[in-house]
Specification:
Bound molecules: ligand 26Q
Number of helices: 35
Helix content: 40-55%
Largest sheet: 9 strands, mixed
Number of strands: 24
Distance between the termini: 38 Å
CATH architecture of the largest domain: 3-Layer(aba) Sandwich
C-alpha cells in the first residue's frame, strides 16, 4: 500500500501566482461550498480562501512531519492550558509568502481581503499574557525549525465576550466553533482513556515492578485529538497544535435509558462534555474549583500517553525518553504531569520508582509566570486524593525522598524543610503544585531578569538553596510576524525602504534604523504611518462604539487584563487630576490626549469590575465637559482580544506599563508597543527594565518605586494616608472620586475602593502618584517637540528586536531543551 502510494506521480508544486490562486478560490467556492461567485457571501469567500491556503500549508505540514520522523531527533512538547492564537488566515497567508498574490487574486474577483479577514472568529483559548506567549512560542518554534507539538484543551467556549452595559462589564459566552473550524483535523486514532477517582490496589503478582500499583478508576472518559497546523515564517516548517476534547465512554447509559430515566442516561455524556466546555476566565487562581483540577489532569494524562506511545513506537524503550523528548510546563497548570509520568512509567511500564524518576526529572522543564501568592496553585489534599488517589501516593513518595535529602544531606532547618515540602501544612493541608513542578524538573525558569531574581529570593528561596543550578532566566519575546509585519504592513514597508529586508529574518537587524532616528524626512514618513494607524483605530472606535477621537492627539493606551497590581486605577486617578488642572489653568499649554483602556476582569473579581465601571464613569463626565475643550478624552474599548490588540498596538503613541514594581513577571504588551514605535511610561518592573536597557534611558520614561523600595516600604510601615495628605493633586482627585462627582446616580459607589487606599494601598498607588503625574508632564513636553518625539519612537522600533520570541525560543532550545546547536 505504502509502496503503491509512493510510486504515484507527484503533483507539481502548487502555484503562487494570482491568476491561479483566483481560479482555485472560485473552484473551491463552487465545489467545496456550492456557490457561484455571484451568490457568494463574504463568509463564503473567506472559507474558500482558507481552503486554498490550507492545502499549501498541509503540503508543508506533511513534509515537516516526515522530516521529523526521518531525523529521529529530539522533540519539544509545550504543555499549556492556554493558547491564545487569535485569527489564523492572515498569519498563514503571510507566513507562506502569499499575501501580495492573495490580495491581488481576491481583488480580481472584486473581494477585499481585509474585509473578509475580519469575519474569521478570534480563537481565544486563553486569558492573557501566558496564553498569548504560548501562541507566539508555537509560531517561533516553527520559524526556527524546532520540531515541536503544543498540547492543550479544545475549549468549546473560550474567553468570554465582554460587553459594557451602562459602564459595567457583562460576560457573554464565546462560541468560536459555531460555524465549524476549517483549521482543525480530528484524529480519532489518537484517543486515550482518562480515569478519575476510584481506588488503588497492590499490583498483581505477574512480574510487574515492585513499585507498580493498579488504579481502579471510578470514572473514565476518552480524550480525542484535534490537530491544527502552525506555520513558521517563510513556511519552511509547520508544527502541530494538538488540542484534546472529551468524549464519554458510554454516551447513553442503556440500563437507565431502558428504565425510562432518559435524562439520567446522559449523565456520563454530560460529565465528559463539561471537561472541555469552558476556559476558566481567571488569570490568577481565584477559583480552585474541582473542575479545573479535572481539566488539568485530563489534558496532562492525554498528552503524556500520546508522547509515550509515540516514543515507544519509534524508539522502543521508555528509558531513552529524556534523549528524545523535552516537555515544557507552561506554569503549574500542567504540573500534575510530573505525577502522571511517574504513574505511567511505574504502573504501565514497570519501572521502579528511582528509574522512573531518572526518566521524568531530566525530561521536564517548568516556566513560572507569577509570584503573586494568590496565583500559586495549591489543591486541598482531600480533593486531590479523592480525584487522583494514585497520584496522591506518588506525590507523597516524591516528597519523602525530597525531604529526606533536605534534612539529612543538606542539613536544612525545620522552616526550610516546611517551605520545600510538596505539602503545605499550615491550616488545611494542600498540595503545592509549584513545588511539585520544581522538584520534578531539571530546569525552572522565570520570564524576565527581575522576576527570575525574585524567584530565587522569595517563593523558591529554599528550593533554590537546595538546587542552586536549577533556576534560570528566559526573558519573554513576541513574534514580529504577527506583531509587526501583519498588524503593521505600512511600517514594515517603510522600514524595508530604509534598511532593506534583513530584519524580516533577523529582528535584531532593526538596529540599522537607528541611523534614521534624527533624519527629518524619515521622521515625517514614520509619523505618516503612525497617523494612518491612528486613523484606522479611530474608524474602528467610531464604527464599534460611535465614539469620535482626534487622530492628531497623543494616543495613550493601557490594554491588558484588569488587575489591581497592573494599576489601571493609578492611570484613572491621574486622568482625574489632569482634568482638574486643565479646568483650573486653561491658559496653560496642555497637549491634547486620548486615553484608551481595554481589558477583561475575572467575573468574580469585584474590584477589577469596579475599576472598569470607574473608567467609564470618568469618561462620561470628562468627555462631555466643555471646559476640557477637547484636550482630554477617555475611551474604554470593549472586548479587548488579540484582534483588537492588532489594531491598537500600531496606533499607540504612549504605552502604559505601570504595575507596582516586583509584581508583573514580564509583560509582553510592552514589547509589542515599543516595536510599533510607541514610547513607554513605566515602572522598573518585569521586562520594562530590559526594554530600558535596550532602548536607552533617553527613550523611555521611568517613574516610581523600585521593587526593592516597594519591599522596604511594605516592611517598614507604609502610611498611605500621610502620602495622600502630602499631595494636593492626589488628595483632590481621590476626594472627587469617592464623594461621587463621577457617580451622581450612586454617590458611594467608589467610597470603599478609594477609601481603602488611605489605610492599606498594597499596590502603592499613593506612593507612586506624584512621580507618575510628573512623568506624564515630561511626556507632554517631549510630545510638544515633534522631532524629539519621533527620534525617540524610531529608536524604540530600532532597538527592541531582541524581544523577538525567536530569540527566546533559541535560548530555550539551547539551554533547556538541548535541541539546537
Ligand atoms: C490558575 C488556576 C485556576 C484558574 C486559573 C488559573 C490561572 C490562569 C491563568 C492563573 C494564571 C493565569 C495567567 C497568568 C498570566 O498570564 N501571567 C502572565 O504571563 C505573561 C507571560 O509570561 C507575563 O508576561 C505576565 O507578566 C504574567 O502576568
Amino acid at each position: 500500500m505504502i509502496e503503491r502510494i509512493s510510486s504515484l506521480p507527484k503533483p507539481a508544486p502548487r502555484a503562487t501566482d494570482p491568476g491561479i490562486l483566483a481560479a482555485e478560490i472560485v473552484e473551491r467556492l463552487t465545489y467545496g461550498i456550492g456557490k457561484n461567485a455571484a451568490a457568494a457571501k463574504p463568509h463564503d469567500w473567506l472559507a474558500a480562501v482558507i481552503n486554498v491556503i490550507r492545502e499549501r500549508v498541509i503540503d508543508r505540514w506533511i513534509a515537516s512531519t516526515n522530516k521529523t520522523y526521518e531525523e529521529q531527533g529530539k522533540r519539544v512538547y509545550y504543555l499549556s492550558l492556554e493558547f491564545l492564537i487569535g485569527r489564523l488566515m492572515r498569519d498563514a497567508v503571510s507566513n507562506m509568502g502569499l499575501m501580495d498574490s492573495m490580495r491581488e487574486a481576491l481583488a480580481s474577483l472584486g473581494v477585499e481581503i481585509d474585509l473578509i479577514r475580519e469575519l474569521e472568529p478570534d480563537a481565544a483559548l486563553g486569558n492573557g499574557g501566558l496564553g498569548r506567549l504560548a501562541a507566539c512560542f508555537m509560531e517561533s518554534m516553527a520559524t526556527v525549525d524546532v520540531p515541536a507539538y503544543g498540547y492543550g484543551i479544545r475549549y468549546v467556549n473560550g474567553m468570554f465576550r465582554q460587553e459594557i452595559h451602562d459602564g459595567w462589564q457583562v460576560e457573554l459566552p464565546e462560541t468560536w466553533l459555531a460555524h465549524g473550524n476549517p483549521w482543525e483535523f480530528e484524529r480519532r486514532e489518537a484517543s486515550y482513556e482518562i480515569g478519575f477517582g476510584g481506588s488503588v490496589e497492590p499490583a498483581a503478582a505477574d512480574g510487574s515492578g515492585d513499585d507498580a500499583r493498579v488504579w481502579k478508576a471510578g470514572e473514565r472518559v476518552i480524550a480525542t485529538a484535534f490537530d491544527t497546523p502552525v506555520v513558521g515564517w517563510r513556511g519552511e516548517r509547520v508544527n502541530t497544535l494538538r488540542l484534546w476534547t472529551a468524549l464519554p465512554i458510554d454516551p447513553i447509559l442503556l440500563d437507565a435509558f431502558n428504565a425510562g430515566d432518559h435524562i439520567g442516561a446522559l449523565r456520563e455524556s454530560n460529565k465528559a462534555d463539561s471537561l472541555a466546555r469552558v476556559l476558566y476566565p481567571a488569570d490568577s487562581n481565584l477559583a480552585g474549583q474541582e473542575l479545573r483540577l479535572r481539566q488539568e489532569y485530563f489534558f496532562s494524562s492525554a498528552s503524556l500517553q500520546d508522547i509515550l506511545r509515540r516514543h515507544v513506537q519509534y524508539f522502543g524503550d521508555v528509558r531513552t525518553l529524556p534523549e528524545k523528548a523535552a516537555i515544557q510546563l507552561n506554569d503549574t497548570h500542567p504540573a500534575v504531569s510530573i505525577a502522571e509520568m511517574m504513574r505511567l512509567l511505574m504502573d504501565e511500564h514497570d519501572l521502579p520508582f528511582d528509574e522512573a524518576w531518572a526518566v521524568t526529572q531530566p525530561t521536564f522543564g517548568y516556566t513560572n509566570h507569577t509570584l503573586l501568592p494568590e496565583a500559586l496553585e495549591t489543591w486541598p489534599v482531600p480533593l486531590f486524593e479523592r480525584l487522583l488517589p494514585r497520584h496522591m501516593q506518588i506525590v507523597y513518595a516524591i516528597n519523602a525522598k525530597l525531604l529526606i535529602k533536605a534534612r539529612r544531606e543538606m542539613k536544612l532547618d525545620d522552616a526550610a524543610v516546611a517551605a520545600i515540602s510538596l505539602i503545605d501544612e499550615h491550616g488545611e493541608r494542600r498540595v503545592r503544585m509549584a513545588n511539585l513542578a520544581f522538584a520534578g524538573s531539571h530546569s525552572v525558569n522565570g520570564v524576565a531578569a527581575l522576576h527570575t531574581d525574585l524567584m530565587k529570593k522569595t517563593v523558591f528561596a529554599d528550593l533554590h538553596r537546595m538546587f542552586p543550578d536549577r533556576i534560570n532566566n528566559k526573558t519573554n519575546g513576541v513574534t514580529p510576524r504577527r506583531w509587526l509585519q501583519q498588524c503593521n504592513p505600512e511600517l514594515t514597508s517603510l522600514i524595508r525602504e530604509a534598511i532593506g529586508d534583513a530584519f524580516l529574518d533577523d529582528t535584531e537587524a532593526l538596529t540599522a534604523l537607528d541611523a534614521f532616528a534624527d533624519d527629518a524626512a524619515f521622521q515625517e514618513k514614520f509619523k505618516a504611518v503612525k497617523v494612518a494607524k491612528k486613523d484606522a483605530l479611530s474608524n474602528m472606535l467610531r464604527e464599534r462604539m460611535g465614539v469620535r477621537v482626534d487622530p492628531t492627539a497623543l494616543f495613550d493606551i493601557q490594554i491588558k487584563r484588569i488587575h489591581e497590581y497592573k494599576r489601571q486605577l493609578l492611570n484613572i486617578i491621574e486622568a482625574v487630576a489632569l482634568y482638574d488642572q486643565i479646568r483650573s489653568r486653561p491658559e496653560l499649554d496642555w497637549q491634547p490626549r486620548v486615553k484608551l483602556f481595554g481589558g477583561k476582569a475575572a467575573p468574580s473579581y469585584h474590584n477589577a469590575k469596579l475599576i472598569i465601571k470607574l473608567a467609564n464613569d470618568v469618561a462620561r463626565v470628562i468627555n462631555h465637559d466643555p471646559a476640557v475643550q477637547g484636550l482630554l478624552k477617555i475611551v474604554f474599548v470593549p472586548n479587548y482580544n488579540v484582534s483588537v490588540a492588532e489594531v491598537m498596538m500600531p496606533a499607540a503613541d504612549l504605552s502604559e506599563q505601570i504595575s507596582t514594581a516586583g509584581m508583573e513577571a514580564s509583560g509582553t504588551g510592552n514589547m509589542k508597543f515599543a516595536l510599533n514605535g510607541a514610547l513607554t511610561i513605566g515602572t522598573l518592573d518585569g521586562a520594562n527594565i530590559e526594554i530600558k536597557d535596550h532602548v536607552g534611558d533617553d527613550n523611555i520614561v521611568i517613574f516610581g518605586l523600585t521593587a526593592e523600595e516597594v519591599a522596604e516600604r511594605r516592611a517598614n510601615g507604609y502610611t498611605p494616608r500621610e502620602v495622600i495628605e502630602g499631595s494636593r493633586e492626589l488628595a483632590q482627585a481621590l476626594s472627587a472620586i469617592s464623594s461621587g462627582v463621577f457617580s451622581p446616580d450612586d454617590k458611594d459607589r467608589y467610597a470603599d475602593l478609594i477609601g481603602g487606599l488611605y489605610d492599606h494601598d498594597w499596590f502603592m498607588v499613593a506612593a507612586d502618584f506624584d512621580s507618575y503625574h510628573a512623568a506624564q508632564r515630561r511626556i507632554d513636553t517631549i510630545w510638544a517637540d515633534e522631532s524629539a518625539w519621533y527620534s525617540k519612537t524610531i529608536r524604540n522600533t530600532a532597538r527592541v528586536g531582541w524581544f523577538s520570541s525567536d530569540r527566546t525560543i533559541r535560548q530555550y532550545a539551547r539551554e533547556i531543551w538541548g535541541v539546537l546547536p
